[in-house]
Amino acid sequence: QTQLVESGGGLVQPGGSLTLSCTASEMSISSFTMGWYRVPPGKQREPVGTILSGGTAYYPPSVKGRFTISRDNAKKTMYLQMNSLKPDDTAVYYCAADLKGETWRYWGQGTQVTVSS
After folding, report:
1. Residue 106: alpha-carbon gap to chain centroid
2. N or C: where does the chain have the smaller number of CB atoms within 10 Å of the terminal CB?
């Protein structure tokens, strides 16, 4: 059974950078659309970005220009490079894989990112 495991979360100061990883087990991700989401404290889940199988990525205005999604299909891993982090970026970050319509087939367990001085 395919599982997604996020890593790389932690505490970072405002203005700092952090890179999250999302690694899949069992199956190739090369054909999957993949994405990142986050759940800020007390708020609903919101999209962070999506990367298509060909490598094109899309971002919401809240992170565009600061966050970059990439993928290494050989390593079955997707990355989220986060720069110029703000306290508002504090959230549990989740990765998702294999978009079917509006439903993601696989989800990771989440990793906490805290931006604070």
Report:
1. 13
2. N
